[in-house]
Design a protein that fits this description.
The protein is mostly beta strands. The chain is built from one helix and eleven strands.
């Protein structure tokens, strides 16, 4: 399922808490439009971004990063973490964010912008195996 997000750049990051089941795939898709300094919201060309990551930080301070599988024009971004990748996350509450970095020559976004689109708490769970 894809969700449409419209926000003002000054109000980022958007707060979003998620649940991730260790050893299972995790995916979220978004179409994002941002307004900058009161201008009309427009879909961002995420294909120009030089860094597009999901970042998780556990209670010990360990950070794990996963590249987004889609960061395209027309504001489309897709986060997908495979079962082997989710299995590496420590169970429990973690901070998470969806991070982007744009080059200084970006034509569709403030040159050199770095920002988190989303941030919140990830509830990372280990599923109970069937006996």
């Amino acid at each position: 399922m894809s969700e449409t997000i419209t926000a003002d750049f000054a109000d980022l990051p958007v707060r979003r808490d998620i649940r991730v089941n260790r050893g299972h795939s995790f995916e979220e898709r978004f179409t994002v439009s941002l307004s900058i300094e009161g201008a009309a919201a427009q879909a961002i060309d995420f294909s120009q971004a030089t860094a597009c990551e999901l970042r998780f930080r556990d209670s010990e301070g360990t950070v794990q990063c996963f590249d987004l599988v889609e960061h395209a024009s027309a504001g489309r971004v897709t986060a997908r973490v495979s079962p082997p990748q989710t299995a590496t996350l420590a169970a429990g509450r973690q901070d998470w964010e969806m991070y982007f970095e744009f080059p200084s020559g970006s034509t569709d976004f403030p040159a050199g912008a770095t920002f988190s689109l989303f941030e919140g708490v990830a509830d990372v769970r280990t599923m109970i195996p069937a006996e």
